[in-house]
Design brief:
Layout lengths: L2 E5 L2 E5 L8 E4 L2 H12 L5 H19 L8 H8 L2 E12 L5 E16 L4 E20 L5 E24 L2 E18 L4 E16 L4 E13 L11 E13 L1
Antiparallel strand pairs: 1-2, 2-3, 4-5, 4-11, 5-6, 6-7, 7-8, 8-9, 9-10, 10-11
Helix pairs in contact: 1-2
């Protein structure tokens, strides 16, 4: 075999060793079968056939090489508008139910990703810690009201969602949702269990201090429950309050 000439999608092989007419074969599958025949055939030069086989493999690899993935313009813009940020905040919740006089302080630490440029949507998963204290009214054996003191620390993972549909200059208004599953230092509230679900819903006024830093003043409604139904084993309690958060963009 002398050399392999590629023309469009057809390869033409010239066997100078035997002075034969050009052999035409298609690539890449026919290349391999034809050249394997040449290697095993006693009528052809094995060295020339092996050389041609190597060329065919290189050519086949070139054909099968996947083109590099190029991100579309829409995907590129979407990625450019994503921003990684970290939010840390403190909240104080006061009771408004006379039978659930429990005060609550929470601290949230949430890394999150912010999407879009004109309106901001932030989603994050982080850590919530809390301390709650006060008293709760439960029913005794003879359905008599009994006031019980209660206090506990709690900690657990949480989900954070913030949507900012209104952005004017350095200010923005947001709708905030926080959901957490907390383990407590003891059964809390009194008569309950060692775990609770904490749900918070509210809004915030955000102020952009600098390119990378922002402050958020929030108002929240909160509900704490262990999800075991409406009975004495689930002494849920509501509260409402305010909080202040610091947000840093990376």
């Amino acid at each position: 075999m002398g050399y392999v000439k590629k023309s469009s999608n057809i390869n033409i092989a010239y066997d100078f060793n035997r002075g034969s007419d050009p052999a035409i074969f298609f690539s890449p599958e026919n290349n391999c079968s034809y050249l394997m025949h040449m290697i095993t055939s006693p009528h052809h030069s094995r060295a020339g056939a092996i050389f041609s086989f190597i060329l065919a493999l290189l050519f086949s690899a070139e054909l099968h090489a996947a083109p590099p993935h190029q991100m579309s313009h829409r995907d590129s813009v979407f990625v450019q508008q994503m921003r990684i940020k970290f939010e840390g905040g403190l909240e104080y919740m006061a009771p408004y139910d006379a039978s659930r006089m429990i005060r609550t302080v929470t601290m949230d630490l949430y890394p999150s990703v912010q999407f879009f440029k004109r309106v901001h949507l932030s989603i994050g998963v982080g850590l919530t810690t809390t301390y709650a204290w006060g008293n709760i009214i439960q029913f005794g054996k003879n359905f008599q009201e009994v006031t019980m003191q209660t206090a506990a620390f709690g900690i657990g993972p949480g989900l954070y969602i913030r949507f900012e549909p209104i952005i004017v200059g350095r200010f923005s208004l947001s709708i905030d949702i926080n959901e957490g599953v907390l383990l407590y230092s003891e059964n809390f509230p009194a008569g309950g269990d060692i775990y609770n679900f904490m749900s918070r819903l509210g809004g915030s006024v955000c102020y952009r201090v600098s390119k990378r830093n922002k402050l958020a003043l929030s108002g929240r409604w909160m509900h704490v429950s262990n999800g075991q139904g409406f009975n004495q084993h689930n002494p849920s309690y509501p509260a409402a309050g305010a909080g202040l958060a610091f947000i840093h963009y990376f």
